Amino acid sequence: MTADTDAPHTLLCVTGLTPQVVTETLYALAQEGAHALPDRIEVITTTEGRRRLALTLLAEHGGHGYLDRLCADYGIDRGALAFDVDSIHVVGGADDEPLADIVTEADNAAAADRIHERIRTLTEQPGRLHVSLAGGRKTMGFYAGYSLSLYGRGHDRLSHVLVNPPFESHPDFFYPPPTPATLQLPGRNDIISTAEAEVRLAELPFVRLREELGEELPHQGLSFSEAVERAQQVLIPPQLTIDLTERTVTLQGQPITLSATHFLWLTWLADRARQEAPAIAFDEAAVDELTGYADWLEGRLSQLHESLASARKEIEREGRSNYFERTRSRLNKAIAERSGLPTRAAARYQIHTHSSRPQTTYGLKLEPEQIRIEGEP
Questions:
Q1: Which residues fall within 8 angstroms of residue 156, CB to CB, at 6 or more apart?
Q2: Cβ-contact 48, 13 below 8 angstroms
Q3: Which residues form the CRISPR system ring nuclease SSO2081-like domain (predicted)?
Q4: Which sign does the torsion angle of CA 80, 129, 203, 143 carry?
Q5: Which residues contact residue 22 at a Cβ distance below 8 angstroms, ignoring those fewer than 6 apart?
Q6: Which pLDDT belongs to residue 5?
Q7: What pLDDT, in 10s, does the model give residues 167-187?
Q8: What does the buried/exposed string (b/e) look like for 97-130 if buried means 16 or more CB atoms within 10 Å of the residue's CB?
Q9: Are strands 40-45 and 352-355 parallel, antiparallel or unpaired?
Q10: Where are the CATH 1.10.10.10 domain residues in the chain?
Q11: Whole-angstrom distance, CA of residue 137 vs CA of residue 45
């Protein structure tokens, strides 16, 4: 991984009640060298987590100032490291009230939205983002990792800090100081030396979907679940289902309302694609096929026959018919605007040109197994 050492570098920690994750992660980064150090730290936590973070990491209001101590011990420029109480973001509940803990389904959803939106925002800014999953609830770590998978760029990192026992759960251990110190083991008549502590950073590989999603990258204003659903709609294989009995169409499970003409056209071209028929030119043969489908779906008295009869006369007279291009354009527009799918996903179900010489042909770019036609007309 290459990185621009002059670019802004943010360390984002997602944690619950464990302020040690900040100092332990920063310590591990310091062992990698100055290029790995962030110039800004942010934390997402609860109100109780914020209280503990402020009192242990910062020196204000009688706090222990462990972050200042770490910087002094290992030659880190504290003045160049932006972190204060305003850098600690508290998850709000469904009513936007700060959460003291994350216990309910609604709390989890609120935490997901907060983590997701902060990671989305940070990856829209110049510089590098390093997300640490250590210290948080498992669900918070999952939300952070998945959000980074959605938005992460090539130079962004995901990690988890590893600390050997019994230091990993010791309330007074924040990092190994240069001069070893002894710590009392809670609830036991025994002491340990920080000389035995091991703190290292585990790099977590993750799938980067940003380039794959392209313009369909979930945008501002979406909740975590909505962003996941939007990405999923782009990434999953297409599935077109047409119910002839109910006259309904679903695209990847999303229902779409179509006019009788558009339903006829989609059924016609879907049936052709399902049978692996080649793309078709908009000529007299297409009129014949469409007329057959109109008889089958609508009956011989259907008004669609009038349009098809006019199209046939245009083709006989001029060699082409505006009816076909007009209907194709309107159907494609209906699919784009009414399906509720991202643009890239909706495009799978639109009518595409397949060749241009010597004659343009048209059809759906779907495989037979991606099409289901059910029921009877």
A1: 123, 128, 129, 130, 131, 148
A2: no
A3: 18-236
A4: positive
A5: 13, 15, 41, 43, 53, 57, 67
A6: 53
A7: 998 999 999 999 999 999 988
A8: eebbebeeeebbbbbbbbbbbbbbebbeeebbbb
A9: unpaired
A10: 237-374
A11: 10
Q: Enter the CATH code of domain 237-374.
A: 1.10.10.10
pTM, two decimal places: 0.79
Residue in the structure block whose two tokens are 């209907």? 327
- pLDDT tens sequence across 312-330: 999 999 888 899 999 999 9
Beta strands 240-243 and 371-374, pairing class:
parallel
C-alpha radius of gyration, the chain, whole number: 30
Which residues of the chain, if any, have pLDDT below 70? 1-6, 136, 300-301, 356-357
Q: Which residues pair with 46 in a beta bridge?
A: none
Among 376, 341, 373, 367, which Cα is nearest to 268's?
373
The arrangement of secondary structure in 9-233, i.e. its CATH architecture, is: 3-Layer(aba) Sandwich (3.40)
Two tokens, residue 324: 């076909």
Cβ–Cβ < 8 Å for 71, 77: yes
Instruction: Kindly give, in sequence order, each residue whose CB lies less than 8 Å from that of residue 342, ignoring residues fewer than 6 positions away.
Output: 216, 230, 233, 234
Q: What is the structure's pLDDT at 1?
A: 39
Q: Is the peptide bond before 342 cis (omega within 30 degrees of 0)?
A: no
Average pLDDT, the chain: 91
**Strands 40-45 and 240-243, sheet pairing:** unpaired
**CA nearest 267: which of 287, 285, 240, 288?**
240
Domain with CATH 3.40.50.10770 in the chain: 9-233
Q: Could you tell me where the beta strands, DSSP code E, fall in 3-156? A: 9-14, 40-45, 88-90, 128-132
